[in-house]
Amino acid sequence: MSTAMGQQGSLTTRQSDALDTYHTAVDRFELILRERRAQIRSNQQLPNLPGQTLYLARNDMISAYKDLTDALPSRIGKPNKFGIPPAYLDAENEPMLDEYRRLFDVMDAPPANAQKSDTPFKDVVDLGIAIARAKGLDTTNAEVAGRISLGIFFAETNGVQNAGNARSNKYKGSFQTGPSEDQIGQKKWFATKKTIATFDPTLSLRDDKEEARAGNLDHRFNHWTAVRDGLMSTHADIFPQVPRLAKILPDPIDQMKLFELMQIIPTPTRAALRSGKLLSFKISDPTFMGYLRNNSIFAFGHADRARGSATFREILDAMWLFNAKFEQASSKFDEIKAR
What we know:
Layout: H1 3-9, H2 13-41, H3 50-71, H4 94-107, H5 120-134, H6 139-157, H7 179-199, H8 201-214, H9 223-235, H10 242-248, H11 252-264, H12 266-275, E1 282-283, H13 286-294, H14 301-305, E2 310-311, H15 312-318, H16 323-338
Antiparallel strand pairs: 1-2
């Protein structure tokens, strides 16, 4: 009898079932990875939303591993390069997640007519700072807003400008906004632009050029206008609270996470900000909990998915899949400011 068979023979029914489910989930994820890669290499037409099945298969693998380590804690292994808690990911599966990211890079590629920027990261920072200053922030706090803005860009697209979306036909571009959000952002921007022009005429002139360049193009596929409109539609009204939030959340990564929640669950996030008890504010609405799970928060394993409510502190702590993106954004922000 092999060692593996001997070990499985000594497991409880729950442990054995969890192990079988995990192996099935790994095999399925690997199968879908190979299938998508073969379709891309042979130039086959991909199905509608080709990333959704892949995303769900990845989640199933992570979920199954978390259920396995809950049932059999000895299976928790070494840390992985993605910073995912070891109870959720077997480090041996790192190559599959690398391939997962490479496939999404292809499937999320910008459309051919997208208008890129030669300075995509600096654009995000400059726009975030300018909008924050227009909202009354001093230089120091406006820079915090600029760093947060860059974090959102990395959270939404891994820092890829004009990105498409292999999981949605609605949300597109550098800030993954929908058509209505973009329109709202444009209106708010033009109501604010005169103020910005008084203290940053260079940025205002750049905006004139990009607006003329975009013309009748969907503004979500001009990097500058996409970032500008995305920030104005969702985040600008919250920027005045940055000084207070920086005291409540001194960790820059937590600050980015909170503003990313404005992308995911804006209504309860605004309510939490108004409450005066941000970190202890609890949400329990099944719809909002569903939105969190659809964005890889409380999405893995039976115990996490069974949660009916969570405080904002618990939500921020559960956003560990965003950590690497926000750390990359923070590093890029430091590079920009050093120049």
